[in-house]
Amino acid sequence: MVLDYIVVGFGLAGLSFSEQLQKNNKSFVVISESDKSSSVVAGGMYNPVILKRFTSPWNALPQLEYAIPFYSKIESRLNTQVNTPLPVLRVFNTIEEQNNWLIASDKPNLAPFLSSNFMKNDNEFIAAENDFGVVEKAGRIQVAKLLQAYKEELLKKDSYLNESFDFESLKITDDCISYKGLKAKKIVFCEGFGLKSNPYFNYLPLNGTKGEVLIIKAENLKLASIVKSGVFLIPLEEVDCYLVGATYHWTDKTWETTKEAKSELISKLDTLLSCDYHVIDQLAGIRPTVKDRRPLVGKHPLYNNMYVLNGLGTRGVMVAPTVSDQLFNYIENNAVLDAEIDITRFSLAYNNDAE
């Protein structure tokens, strides 16, 4: 049997492309060993506003409008709830920030998300003397739970191989991909930061940004919204538990947690919280970031049956469904990729590398 696809990697990119394949009745196998996902350091948030500057991220509205039904269909099929809509409360540090928020809330691309009515702080343990700005249509996807449930579905269908991908076992011809007894028409690499070790796509400028988060327990906090100040404070499913994050480190490319990141997060958290809490876990991951802050999507310059879906950055929950749809339609329906995400924008880097 010749499969339609082999998908390498199973984070948000691999899952989203797998969903496109299932939706279109394509046969495939996912190959992935690592349970690590950079999504954990972002807390699985979908937040359509850059809260540092009160601006809109790239394509936020269409991404969100596609993503929520996308996840809802998976929830329904797997009978697993992973989407928790939650407003984001942005702490105002100054009156000037309030004014800037009001100006931003009048802009067409931000008006659907930024409430022009400020919210009073009624939580005695949160420092917010100047009230909150409210971001609507935000929330959190339980990424780890989603990945596990989806993986279990694929395992039942014999569509998942839990192993590290061996590039020496990959054989490529014009009409077939061969790998350890598997044969497929096409292969798509969705490896996250692992792309740096991919001999076919390592010419792409995937930088990788390390992030660390804390999981805390604060029994008196009783918070039912996401709060953003110096850090994000995100309610978790476990009673009285919250995710605190995240740090950004551009040179450390390890998955190990650090004392420095823990100290940084606690220092920022202590300016926000006045209640007792204790740290119960610390997690680290490497976000697949790109220098121009756009995903890496498209076909290999030399091999017509080899593709990449990567570089989703810090907003993978929002970005993954849309770009996976674009890649599928590019491959199967000859649709044109948006120039912003097409890896041909880095063709010069490939040519230089080939020389």
Secondary-structure blueprint:
Layout: E1 3-8, H1 12-23, E2 28-31, E3 45-46, H2 60-78, E4 83-85, E5 88-91, H3 95-105, E6 132-135, E7 139-141, H4 143-156, E8 160-161, E9 170-172, E10 177-179, E11 182-189, E12 209-217, E13 226-228, E14 232-235, E15 241-245, H5 259-270, E16 278-287, E17 296-299, E18 306-310, H6 316-333, H7 347-354
Parallel strand pairs: 1-2, 1-11, 2-8, 5-13, 11-18
Antiparallel strand pairs: 3-7, 4-7, 5-6, 9-10, 10-11, 12-15, 12-16, 13-14, 14-15, 17-18
User: What is the share of helical residues?
Assistant: 25-40%
CATH homologous superfamily heading of the largest domain: D-Amino Acid Oxidase, subunit A, domain 2
CATH fold title of the largest domain? D-Amino Acid Oxidase, Chain A, domain 2
Q: Specify the CATH class of the largest domain.
A: Alpha Beta
Uncertain stretches of 5 or more adjacent residues:
none
Shape: globular
Overall pLDDT score: 94
Number of domains: 2
User: Would you identify the CATH architecture of the largest domain?
Assistant: 2-Layer Sandwich
What is the number of beta strands? Answer: 18
Strand content: 15-25%
* Rg computed from alpha carbons, rounded to a whole number of angstroms: 21 Å
Q: Tally the helices: what do you get? A: 7
Major β-sheet profile: 8 strands, mixed
- End-to-end Cα distance: 38 Å
Judged by helices, strands and strand pairing, the structural class is alpha/beta
